[in-house]
Amino acid sequence: MANSKPLLGYWKIRGLGQPVRFLLAYLDVDFDEKFYELTPELTSDNWLADKEKLGLDFPNLPYFFDGSTKITETRAILKHLSRTRKPELLGKTEIASKIDMVDNFLYDLYYIEFAGMIYGYTEELATTYKETAAVKLGRLSSLMKDNEWITGKDITYVDFFVYECLYHFIKFDSSCLDKFPNLKGLMTRFENLPEIKKYINSPKFLEGPIYLATAKYQL
Amino acid sequence: MATSPIVQKLKPILGYWKIRGLAHPVRFLLAYLEVDFEDKYYELTPELTKDYWFEDRKKLNLEFPNLPYLIDGDFKVTESRAILKYLARTRKPDLLGNGLEVQTRLDTVENFVYDLWIINFVEMLYGYTEERHQKYKELEPLKLAYLSSFMKDNSWVSGNNITYVDFLVYEILYQLTIFDPNCLDKFNNLKEFMKRFESLPAINRYINSKDFLNAPLYSKTAIYKI
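The joint structure predicted for all components is written out below.
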């Protein structure tokens, strides 16, 4: 048991699990993955069968087992990995608030506005989302300025979250970053990190789908 | 480096709607830290638009313009949880939690309660329908049960020491009990936690002061008025 590899449990989609997968690859962590899939009737029964038996304080997907530590919540997992393997990824104290702001701001845009729209798709929601995204991506772009990464010249855990969010946004609207070349630049830079490139080109890499089959808008 | 006397006299400014909303955890933390701050209240126009805020927003130079915001000398921060952590970092770093394990626990609870609060509870209030209410009623006891089990008989969320997450959790529980006074009936430790928080001297003083905003919880534009 002591030598068991870390285990990531998540749906067999990119979703919120992908930033964690990318960070594990970046950190060169050899990990196991438990993929959950919806039943043929599109229910969550396969996950529900496991949910209360895993010893998780707040049962949810993704979850991460690391030795005797069991964590849920995507950003908590990203930060745990940073804290235990590469603390520089938490960022220097001077930019800690900036990282927190990007983390929180992006999560709201991603989870409330974007994912909410994808799962409960209507034309109206899509229009509202596109208007909101144009403004909010603008803010993100202005914050980044001509830095290499979202909060400065050093990569932090939040870049892993930013990359995946931008990937989703572009899949939905391929022109959404046209006005923000620095955000496009971040994506290219991320994809070219040696460990990330290796991972993307490996058989382990899950390219899609992005969301569950229950989403009204299929991405 | 000499600081101008004007800058030294500037109180931190917390900008938010004249509601409890997302800012109350920050107000509580400012009170706990005994920071003399200015509560800059924004109100809706008589037509229930946000124009007064939009006017100010143009002038404030915030990276992610939003409410609440905190202006602390030269530093400006938005996002309620980022503000909580900023205050902890600059005034009382112990409030961030000590040790890797505690910090991971805090991250997990912070994210978990935020989802319950904003995505389940607040979204339900603003876009209230009976159907959404029913869904919320099913979900809430499950999530509170997780929180209650997690806390066990600890004094605070992360154990025996108060951290920034306690300020978040208190306000969330307060708001949930205003909506449904019975929601904590099965969770004595959560009720005790609330009493413990309210009994902290600086918090008790603040709650009883004339500066304390007791209500409302949310905006007149929410379908469910609370």
